[in-house]
From TrEMBL:
Residues annotated as domain ABC transporter: 4-242
Matching InterPro entries: AAA+_ATPase, ABC_transporter-like_ATP-bd, ABC_transporter-like_CS, ABC_transpr_MalK/UgpC-like, Mo/tungstate-bd_C_term_dom, NA-bd_OB-fold, P-loop_NTPase, Transp-assoc_OB_typ2
Entry membrane topology: Peripheral membrane protein
MF (Gene Ontology): ABC-type transporter activity; ATP binding; ATP hydrolysis activity
Annotated family: Belongs to the ABC transporter superfamily.
GO CC list: ATP-binding cassette (ABC) transporter complex, substrate-binding subunit-containing
SMART domains: AAA
Name of the featured protein: ABC transporter ATP-binding protein
UniProt subcellular location: Cell inner membrane
């Protein structure tokens, strides 16, 4: 499978509107499962459509393997049907008058694949996706999840070098989405196809992708593995967008700072006096600890008295809402808490759980080294 390279890619629809995509440099490796993640309007679907050839670039170029498929400077544009890519939309786009088998082999018939080979490939992909028993039914006779499998089977049957998926699971209910995520993961492992998957669902990206590209307002914010994105967010946008419950943000500067920010500033100046240019700190809820016995606080950790405002059970875990210095802090525990709403506790946070950001919202790398020195990693 080829590597896809996007270099200085831009997309503008003219007028006074901001670019849909700006100065995008992105490499999608051979056999990679890349998720384009971000809120609505961030440019992820536009990027996918440019890779597919459904949108012309306003600037830059896209190269697939050794072949340039779109280049403004060189005046090159390879049409979608010649890019050897499969595209699955949010809507299934199945032919209602064709059986499931005919829907699945539709692309192979267009390519005039010999009958014996066509039947063999259709049989294999239908069996892999568990839809062979529906071969003589019509799309209206299948559930949403089954129709989604047919749409995937139609693309996989033609064996595309690249499979492009535009929020294909958003129309499914929660259970079917979970099943289809597992299905997609298995298919990627089996077929080794390069997959580019657009989603606004962070957990979809975290569970499916080998690599995630986070976008905001048409610009790339960070590229990395799911663990990279979650554990070392490049900036505040990534930190706040990825995570449920969202990351706790402690403002240390400006009008948004409060008593908790002052307490944290005092802690940092005492324990890490060499650190500068920290405007805010992020703490994941699962990294926030609490206890009714202050002697249990780990030495060197930040601590503060807190009041438990609420306990929210979510099934396998509990969200603890605490108030300290007039600021809300959320913690997550996977063990049933032995406290009740209204209790007074001490919350504490290990320094290595702190994510430091500068005044522009970018990650402060020197703080990482101070909070978690190599020997403690």
């Amino acid at each position: 499978m080829p590597t896809i390279n996007l270099r200085n890619v831009e997309k503008s629809y003219g007028g006074n509107a901001a670019n849909a995509v700006s100065d995008l440099d992105l490499e999608i490796g051979d056999g990679e499962f890349m998720c384009l993640l971000g809120p609505s309007g961030c440019g992820k679907t536009t990027t996918l459509r440019m890779i597919a050839g459904l949108e012309h670039l306003s600037g830059g170029e896209i190269q697939v393997g050794e072949r340039k498929v779109d280049s403004v400077h060189a005046g090159i544009f390879i049409p979608p049907e010649k890019r050897e890519m499969g595209l699955v939309f949010q809507s299934y786009a199945l032919w209602p008058h064709l059986t499931i088998e005919r829907n699945t082999d539709f692309g192979l018939r267009l390519r005039k694949v010999p009958k014996a080979e066509r039947e063999e490939r259709v049989e294999k992909v239908m069996r892999t996706l568990g839809i062979e028993q529906y071969r003589n039914r019509y799309p209206s006779q299948l559930s949403g999840g089954q129709q989604q499998r047919v749409a995937l089977a139609r693309m996989l049957a033609v064996n595309p070098e690249v499979l492009l998926l535009d929020e294909p699971l958003s129309n499914l209910d929660a259970r079917l989405r979970l099943e289809m995520r597992a299905e997609l993961k298995r298919l990627h492992n089996e077929f080794k196809t390069t997959i580019v998957f657009v989603t606004h669902d962070q957990w979809e990206a975290m569970t499916l992708a080998t690599t995630i590209a986070v976008m905001s307002e048409g610009r790339l914010q960070q590229v990395g593995t799911p663990n990279d994105i979650y554990d070392r967010p490049a900036n505040r946008f990534v930190a706040e967008f990825v995570g449920n419950p969202p990351i706790n943000i402690l403002e240390l500067e400006g009008a948004a700072s409060n008593g908790l920010g002052k307490a944290m500033r005092s802690y940092l100046s005492e324990r890490f006096p060499a650190l500068h240019d920290i405007a805010s700190l992020g703490v994941r809820p699962e990294a926030v600890r609490f206890t009714t016995d202050a002697s249990e606080v780990r030495e060197g950790s930040f601590s503060a008295p807190a009041h438990v405002a609420g306990i929210l059970p979510t099934g396998g875990s509990w969200i603890i809402e605490m108030v300290t210095h007039g600021h809300k802090i959320f913690a997550v525990t996977h063990e049933s808490p032995d406290i009740a709403a209204g209790a007074d506790v001490t919350l504490w946070i290990k320094p290595k759980a702190l994510h430091a950001f500068d005044g522009k919202g970018n990650r402060n790398e020197s703080a990482d080294a101070a909070f978690c020195p190599p020997k403690a990693r």
